[in-house]
Specification:
about 325 residues, alpha+beta, Lipocalin, 2 domains, 8-stranded antiparallel barrel, 6-stranded antiparallel β-sheet
Length: about 325
């Protein structure tokens, strides 16, 4: 091999080495592409909007705010909801108190507004159970319902950025009450609720102070479906007896009358607050009897049995405070 040929070979090797180093250097300085999961998340976040579901269902007034009635906006890609099961809460930017005789008027009014008007005049909160966490039953009510194990995410609309932002989320694994408690806690912190204005009305007969206090029970708390559970309280004072029930799509406040008979207190329906009357009142206004054996307070209540237990009778042990 001649010296000139060796020189050519050496020069080629040098050029190839420089090219290889240049390629490696340029590759090392390029930003790493996002993996598939990151890319999808970014795309979904940018595209996420609840504008299509804000008019999916009618709203009803409930103690300081408006919410989608019944089961909310159920997953239905053919009708514009391709996200999952959605519950929307419209919270007035100023505390709102509506007189009983104006609730139906206000319900009609808010349901005539556009989605753009909601975004302008209300703080909007959306609870979403993604479609991947739903089961389907064509004969069910609703047809799409959450699995035992699911994640629910809370979003709110930010008018400054015109985006929907995540506020909070919860993972549920078979605990039927966990989700509703989480929602209730958030609403209690967020909504400036007007105080109940139930007129103090003396009961027909004088009630001794041994009955005074607040009594609480949870009905159907052992059910697998959290929507079956109801929190019920009975508030007895020298002036009035107030019954209150709350749960999924339930918010009832009634004024009762009471008649003391030794170790028992008989209860009867008198009137309702905020048009919260249930159709069950057409069947019975009997709120049963509370008894005290010196240790425990027991309550038999036909109204509760018909409302929340399909008419099956039960004796409820009250927790008195």
């Amino acid at each position: 091999m001649t010296d000139s040929f060796k020189h050519v070979i050496t020069k080629i090797k040098f050029i190839l080495l420089i090219a290889a180093v240049t390629i490696l250097f340029s590759c090392g300085n390029k930003p790493k592409p996002a993996n598939d999961e990151q890319t999808n998340v970014t795309a979904n976040d940018k595209a996420l909007t609840f504008d299509n579901v804000l008019k999916c269902h009618s709203y009803s007034y409930n103690d300081g705010y408006f919410m989608t009635a019944d089961y909310g906006c159920i997953y239905n890609p053919n009708s514009g909801n391709n996200l999952g099961n959605v519950a929307v809460y419209l919270i007035p930017q100023k505390p709102l108190s509506i007189a009983d005789d104006q609730i139906s008027v206000e319900n009609k009014k808010i349901n005539t507004l556009s989605a753009a008007q909601y975004k302008k005049d209300y703080n909007i909160y959306v609870f979403l159970i993604d479609k991947k966490y739903l089961n389907y039953n064509k004969d069910g009510d609703p047809v799409y319902y959450q699995k035992d194990k699911f994640t629910e995410t809370l979003y709110t609309y930010d008018s400054a950025s015109d985006k929907w932002n995540i506020v909070d989320s919860i993972n549920v694994n078979g605990d039927a009450t966990k989700e509703q408690t989480w929602r209730d806690d958030f609403l209690n912190k967020t909504v400036s609720k007007p105080k109940p204005q139930v007129a103090a009305v003396s009961t027909p007969n004088s009630i001794s102070n041994k009955w005074f206090g607040t009594y609480n029970i949870n009905v159907n708390e052992d059910h697998s479906d959290w929507r079956d559970m109801q929190k019920i309280s009975l508030i007895v004072t020298k002036d009035s007896i107030i019954y209150h029930a709350e749960g999924y799509q339930i918010d009832q406040t009634y004024l009762l009358s009471g008649t003391e008979n030794g170790a028992s207190l008989q209860l009867q329906y008198k009137s309702a607050k905020d048009n919260t009357e249930s159709a069950v009142l057409d069947k019975t206004k009997d709120f049963g009897t509370v008894t005290n054996d010196g240790t425990n307070y027991k309550w038999s209540c036909p109204y509760i049995d018909i409302s929340f237990r399909d008419g099956k009778s039960a004796i409820y042990t009250l927790n008195k405070k």
